[in-house]
Structures are given as structure tokens and as C-alpha cells.
Write a structure and sequence with these properties.
heterodimer, A: alpha/beta, Rossmann fold, Alpha-Beta Plaits, 2 domains, six-stranded mixed β-sheet, four-stranded antiparallel β-sheet, 12 helices, globular, B: mainly alpha, 11 helices
Amino acid sequence: MADVITASGLVKRYGEKAALDGLDLTVPEGTILAMLGPNGAGKTTTVRILTTLLEPDEGTATVAGVDVRKDPSGVRALIGLSGQYAAVDEYLTGYENLDMIGRLYKLGRKQSKARARELLERFDLADAGDRVAKGYSGGMRRRLDLAGALVAQPPVLFLDEPTTGLDPRSRSGMWDVIRELVAQGTTLLLTTQYLEEADRLADDIVVVDRGRIIAQGTADSLKSQVGGERIELVVEHADQLDQARGVLAGVAVGEVAVDEHTRRLTAPVTGGGKALQEALRQLDAVGVTALDVGLRRPTLDDVFLSLTGHAAEDGEDGTDSPAPTTKAGQQ
Amino acid sequence: MTATLQPSAPAPVAAQRPSNPVVSALGDGVVIAKRNVIKIKRVPELLVFTLLSPIMFILLFAYVFGSAIPIEGINYREFLVGGIFAQTVIFGATITGAGLAEDVQKGIMDRFRSLPMSRAAVLFGRTASDVIINVITLVIMALTGLAVGWRIREGLLKALLGFAIILLFAYAISWVMAWIGLLVPSPEVVNNASFMFIFPATFIANTFVPTDGFPSALRFVANWNPVSSVTQAGREYFGNTGLPVPDVWALQHPVAYTLIWTVLILLVFVPLSVRQFKVAASR
């Protein structure tokens, strides 16, 4: 498969601070690459460079073989962009928004109108299509914005944090749409702060921190780097810790960590709910009372801690933020 | 959400770029202008305030100041209206700047900039639609003016020329505002920044009172102020004359002087704004 999106050695500085510091990435045709990272990591800057909104200080990038610096208008004819803040014209109706974009893509009056209706239908906005977008909910605006990016059926799509700020239902609706698009052959680069989102959607994930790629791989390989899922258990009495450790060791796939002070045990497991059920059954059998128990999946925080040694905070000094107790227990 | 798209679109629809870039840019400009006109329709408050303030100005000046400003040779109210025309359309230009700043702030500009469309079209479309607002405003003000004693004395054709030169000058000013709108971070800043500039520019002029009585330095500025010349040009076309015109080339040849300024402003600010449009980022 050919690489549809390539970036090599991208550098973008704002004064002293480097928003991008030599970033490389490739996205093969018909796949989804997720850029995962906290605010300020350089995700949006990367998208803005690849969509010709911003010029890099150094480095090269191509979209479908077209150089973003040498032929930006050639790139613009091939891409769709849905930004972090839904770029919806509030004073127009949903239909007018899409029709306007279609006309600017030179679709022609008839085709543009038909396409607008078709997309409204597809994004569950048919009923709201003739209402002014000002009254739309956050989820509706995002859907309209994404529909706007799809008006000309671009073969390459950029979605900058498509679900940030959406409620869970809107989020999973958005995921369905994105999956459908890629099933149709679209190549997609998406940025996200949520590991779960990258996990659900992406073929490949790059983890970005301070303008550089610090890890790359499938969701599974990244998660195995941070230890996968684990059971966390807080027992009622300290004297039950040993018993509980014995039970958890039976279901765990690695060493069981114990924090005596908080009476918390952490056991890496595979098999998710099944492992938890099994552990609970055995704990019950030996008479250990759980004050709190749950299955914990790695979060972006865990990935970051594991990869960088600092937490996924906005600022430069994430190191002093409290580390999750599980990590403390494991070390 | 049923999938009604054709499975995989190999050739993007937008790849067929029109052959003639000028035609295509004009088309884009029309689309953008249409969008802005829809906004006028959807936010009538905007138009109402834009219209009410000049009506208010005419009434306040005509009846409050007018009672204390006797001028020789012409009825003050007849003198006043031409000045208010000029002042109002120049104020109207801030809509251009504020609208652009709002588009940048809301990310709509990013959408436009990521489309295969003419970059200048967003600006030409915007400035064109603001001419429409100015036309509506002038019609309302002319009617108000007629009600308080303003008169057209040189025939309709000349009066139309008077309106045309006022609109033309305002169009040039809206490019200044476009540049400001793309330069500053928010619509509010556009409004504040431009008031700082527009108030003195429209008051240190012959808009509300003749410049004879000004202190000499101020009189010099006022007489060479293009706001004075556009006002004077309007008054001459409407036939609201009767006052001695200061012996200054700018006011003796108000049409030529206004056109020179209009061309100069456009030559400077159209390229500046287009360049700033490429740079303007929403964050």
C-alpha cells in the first residue's frame, strides 16, 4: 500500500518554543492513524501543516503525493478537514452550510444541493437541516462540521479531536461514521486525547509529546508497553492483604503489587471481565471482603507515564502531578 | 445513519478545477457575499442598530446641536445630512473587520482556507456584501434626512453620483477594516480599535460644522482630511451648497481628491489584507 500522508522532520517554532520538533509520520492508503497526546503536544500544529493552513519552518510533507509547500492548492483539492472547534456558520442553516461548501468546491448548483441533502440525511441532521445552526447541540455541530469535510468526497481526511467535548452517545455515533468512511477507502489522520478512541478506531497509533513522536504501534502493542489491564482491589482489613495477594496471584499474568498503606492490590490480568469474575469468586470463597474492586484499563496517563516519565499534563512540568497509585505500587 | 455514499470515491469531485481562475474567484466571491447577506437577514438586530444609530445622529444633531449652530447661507440640517452620510458609511466599514475577526475566531476561516477556493474571494465577498449594507443604510438615512429638511437640488442623477462616491470611499475604508479585522484577535477589539480611529477621522472634518472656526492646526488637518472631501463631494452633487468652500485644493476639487485617496487606500490595503488573510490563524 502506498503512503498517502507522509511527514518528515517537521519543525514549527513559536518564538523559543518548538511546537513541532522533528516530527515524522506516514499513513498508508485506506488506514487510520491516530495521533495521541495531551494538549500542546503538537497534534493540531501537525494537522494544520498537513492541511496547508500553516507552513512548517523545516521538513517536508506530502498528501497523496502532492507536496504541501509546493502545491498547497493541489492538496486542498484532495483533503477534507474537520477541526477541533466545529467550523460551522451559526447564522446559516445546516443545509446552507453544506451547500456553501459544495459551491466553493465548485460542485455545481444541482450537485451541491443534492450532496448537502444526502449528507444531512447520513449524519442524522435531516430534520434539523433547515434550522439555523445556532440552535444546534455540540454533537450536531460536530456532525455538521464533519459532513462539511466530506462534501467533495475527499480521499484524505483530517479530523482534529473529533469527539473532544462530546457526550458518550454522540461520541460513539461519531466513531461509527468514521469507521464507515474508512471502510469506503478513505485515508484518515485523526488526533485525540483518548487512548480508548485511538484504540477503537485506529490501525496505527503514534504517541506525540512535545512535538515529537515518542512511540508508535498498534493499540495492543502500546497497551502491552504500559502493562495492559489490571484488577485493582482495596481490602477492608490490612490482615486480609496476604490472602488477597494469594488469590490474585492465581489469576494475574504478572507480579501482584501491594500498597499496604492504602490496602490496595494491583494485579495485571488478561481476559478482562472473566478474570475479574474469577478473582471475585475466589476472594469470596476465602472470605476476603473487598471495599472497592475494579478492572482498570491503561489510560493516556499511564501511557505517558510509562513512555515519558511525566504525566500527560498540558504544561511543561507534568512530573510533579500525583502518579496513579497503581504505578507506585508496581515499582 | 445509513450509508448512501458510493463505496469509495476514487476521483474526488473537487479535482475538476475550473479552467479560468478569474471566473472561479468571482464565483467564490458571490458565494461568500451571499452567505453574508443571509446573515443580515438572520440577525436583523445588527441591521436595526446599524440603521438606528444614523437616524439617531441625524435627529440629535439636527435638533440638539442644530438649534445652537447657526450657519450663513444654508439651513444647518441640509448641511448636516451629507456629513452624516459620510460618517455613517465609514462607521459601517467596521462591520467588515468585525465580521472577518469573528470568522477567524470561530474557525470558519480555517474551513475556507482548507478549501480549493480563491483566497481573495473571502475578502472580496465580504467587502462586497458590506456595500449592500451601506446601500440600505443610505436609503434609510436619505429618507430620514428628507423628513428633517435635507433636499436634493441638482437632480436625481447627480444625487446618485453623490451616493456613489460616498459608497466608493466607504468601500476603500472597508479594506482598511478588513486588514485590522484579520490582524487583531477578536471582533470586540476591532470595534474598539476602529472607534479610536474613526471618531477623530470623522469629527475633525467638515462633517458636522464648517471648518473655518477650527484652530489653525486642526483646520489644516480637517481641510485635507478625505472625509471632508467626500462630504464636500456629496454636498455638491446633492446641491447642498451655499457656504464658501475653504481655499484648499482638496476641497476645491473634492471628487478628484476623494478618488485619489480611494485608489491609494485600495492599492495599499487590498494586498495587505490578502497577505494577512493567508497568515491569520484562529489559534
